[in-house]
Design brief:
single chain; alpha/beta; Aspartate Aminotransferase, domain 1; 7-stranded mixed sheet; 16 helices; about 45% helix; glycine hydroxymethyltransferase activity; PyrdxlP-dep_Trfase_major; pyridoxal phosphate binding; Ser_HO-MeTrfase-like; pyridoxal phosphate
């Protein structure tokens, strides 16, 4: 029988957390929907701000009903919001969502219209998020799905006719499985030609860092009325959400919905988001995409052929790999990679690979850990050895750990000499 003694349970949990930390430092995490927050961002998660509410966003001297957050709130108002407005080019940035799915809920609620109003979103066969349509229904709205001729393309003509026929209040453009992002400019033009009153929101949860680094087009500049999503995939931030817009009326509607749907917006991660923005290097975005493309080519050379090889494998951080043609079931490939210290997704709902267990890989965290385009050939060799069971898993895992140890992480505290004394003081 397992112990129910609190001290014993706490000790076991502490040991598990230490093992997690050690294993993470030795492993190569290639899950596209995860990223390790920069050390500067992680520091903010350890302090008192994590215990506080912050409601007085207007700065009203008489508005501090919850005064304990007065100091920490400055990190949100004087760092997080100004930097994110600068990086996104948006007039309004809302950092109240707790996650990407929470941001989706707020956008649908605030901008989707009254009960029964049509909302247009992306079919999962073209990469749309599994929850968008069902969440739309739960909020009393009526979803319609945009499709296209292949897993990587939305048909702008069909999109135009769907908007002209249904007149949705909102088009929610989301792609969680995405090798080649939809062209926001083309989508925006098709919508405007059909109904100039329809709002276009781009959920860039998976590609936020690629957008903020300039490697993919800014949706606002391309004609969207807003964009946002989660902040921990291709952006090296905490697990949080954000929403941007240039329109005052949309920002006001969002604030009204937020009043009912968000109380504690988690001040510490919001401060961490600002520190991640201060840490962010634009070159990381282009390097992440280049690494994914190089990894795709290197895997192809080892007879593990990622999807869309004819199109250059990817234009994002993601690769999709069906290992069945190489004689290895996707689930078994996933088990072997995990044992070898290489973390991936195994999914059976990737567009074009329905019901086929296949691997989804991403390069964002690897590049943040210091790996380069030149390292992708070695990464491909390690993946191939693991998938084909050519060497013992623990031997491959040792090589993975050696590769990690030989690379300095991209996000270094010494780049911020003005911050270091405050970090030291906080732990004194």
């Amino acid at each position: 029988m397992r112990s129910t003694d609190p001290a014993a349970l706490a000790g076991a949990a502490a040991g598990a957390l230490v093992r997690q930390q050690h294993r993470s430092a030795r492993a190569l995490n290639m899950i596209p929907s995860e990223n390790s927050a920069s050390p500067l961002a992680r520091w903010a998660l350890a302090g008192d701000a994590g215990s506080r509410y912050f409601f007085n966003t207007s700065g009203d001297p008489d508005g501090w009903a919850f005064p304990a957050a007065r100091d920490a709130s400055e990190a949100e108002t004087r760092l997080t919001l100004p930097l994110l407005r600068h990086l996104t080019g948006a007039a309004h940035v809302n950092v109240r969502p707790l996650s990407g799915l929470h941001a989706m809920t707020l956008v649908l609620s605030a901008w989707g219209g009254a009960a029964g109003t049509p909302v247009l979103t992306v079919h999962p066969d073209q990469g749309g998020h599994y929850a968008t349509a069902s969440l739309t229904r739960r909020l009393g709205l009526t979803p319609y799905l945009a499709t296209g001729p292949d897993p990587h393309t939305l048909d702008p003509e069909l999109l135009h006719h769907l908007v002209a026929d249904r007149h949705p209040r909102l088009v929610y453009l989301d792609q969680s499985h995405v090798l080649f992002p939809a062209d926001v400019a083309t989508v925006a033009a098709a919508i405007r030609a059909a109904d100039e009153h329809t709002v276009l929101y781009a959920d860039v949860s998976h590609t936020l860092g690629l957008v903020l680094g300039g490697a993919l087009p800014n949706p606002l500049a391309a004609g969207a009325h807003g964009f946002g999503g989660s902040t921990h995939k291709t952006f090296p931030g905490p697990q949080k959400g954000m929403i941007t817009t240039d329109r005052d009326d949309l920002a006001t509607a969002l604030h009204r919905a937020q009043y009912d749907m968000v109380s504690n917006h988690h001040l510490a991660p919001t401060c961490a988001l600002g520190l991640a923005a201060a840490d962010f290097l634009a070159a990381y975005a282009a390097d992440t995409i280049a690494a994914a493309q190089a990894l795709g080519q290197a895997l192809h050379q080892r007879h593990l052929v990622p999807e869309a090889a004819e199109r250059g494998y990817t234009a994002t951080h993601q690769l999709w790999l069906n290992t069945a043609p190489a004689g290895v079931d996707g689930r078994e490939a996933h088990r072997r990679l995990t044992a070898a210290g290489i973390h991936t997704n195994v999914l059976s709902d990737l567009p074009g690979l329905a019901a086929t267990p296949a691997l989804r890989l991403g390069t964002a965290e690897a590049v943040g850990a210091g790996l380069t385009v030149q390292d992708m050939d070695q990464v491909a060799a390690l993946i191939a050895d693991a998938v084909h069971d050519r060497r013992p898993a623990d031997v491959i895992a040792g090589d993975v750990a050696d590769l990690r140890a030989a690379r300095a992480g991209r996000w270094q505290l010494h780049r911020h000499p003005d911050v270091a004394p405050h970090i030291k003081e906080s732990f004194a």
